[in-house]
Amino acid sequence: xxxxxxxxxxxxxxxxxxxxxxxxxxxxxxxxxxxxxxxxxxxxxxxxxxxxxxxxxxxxxxxxxxxxxxxxxxxxxxxxxxxxxxxxxxxxxxxxxxxxxxxxxxxxxxxxxxxxxxxxxxxxxxxxxxxxxxxxxxxxxxxxxxxxxxxxxxxxxxxxxxxxxxxxxxxxxxxxxxxxxxxxxxxxxxxxxxxxxxxxxxxxxxxxxxxxxxxxxxxxxxxxxxxxxxxxxxxxxxxxxxxxxxxxxxxxxxxxxxxxxxxxxxxxxxxxxxxxxxxxxxxxxxxxxxxxxxxxxxx
Length: 299
Prior knowledge:
Layout: H1 10-27, H2 38-42, H3 55-74, H4 79-96, H5 101-128, H6 138-145, E1 152-159, H7 162-169, H8 171-185, E2 193-198, E3 201-207, H9 211-227, E4 229-232, H10 241-246, E5 255-258, E6 261-267, H11 275-291, E7 297-298
Parallel strand pairs: 6-7
Antiparallel strand pairs: 1-3, 1-6, 2-3, 4-5
Helix pairs in contact: 3-4, 4-5, 7-8
């Protein structure tokens, strides 16, 4: 799907050209001295005879389906990978009913429809989700803001000294910090919903909630992040979760860091009668929190 010019994908172009040559060779059987008529006899072998699907084809279908399922499992059941596995299975059923034009067309259409739906779902996931933190992305926040009622609260959350983390420990550690903060914000109570706004900044939306009702939940998640000891993963960290947890906190095995966040919060009361104004007010409150020393919630 990335094109033959991507990285080492020239090898797929070579496979494609080899397939063209092979098909041309088979199609010209008996018509030239090079091809001969051996394919007429070979295709009558029980492994290659069709329809329905030859036994060799069934083995290849099984291998392709198993590979697609394994890839979907490796990538946490991404829509496109799940759709590909389902399309392979459906296309196999279509080939088994090749002698029945109606059934063949129905299953073939179903396979194509599965791929289209999977592609749409994958596009939606990429557009509305943040792959690093697993949170909904800024576009999802904009969509959520458009459907709010008259009462709501928005909090803007910024990781303190995030650039320093990146400069000191590298971008891998920075990514771990983002995942940590995103994971804690996803657990915020009070009906809040967390979003990755961009960079090291997050948003938390509280529909049908005044700022005073949201404050205790924001303060709780701020304290949770402050007191959380983040063990930085090293290249020699055990892959086994149990072994890794037993070694958690060992200075010799891991680097333990602490992270804090600053939070600015505003609601839709008073003159803030639009989401743009509430967002701007939350941003200004965030600026005041940072100016006051960071690691705090400001109104």
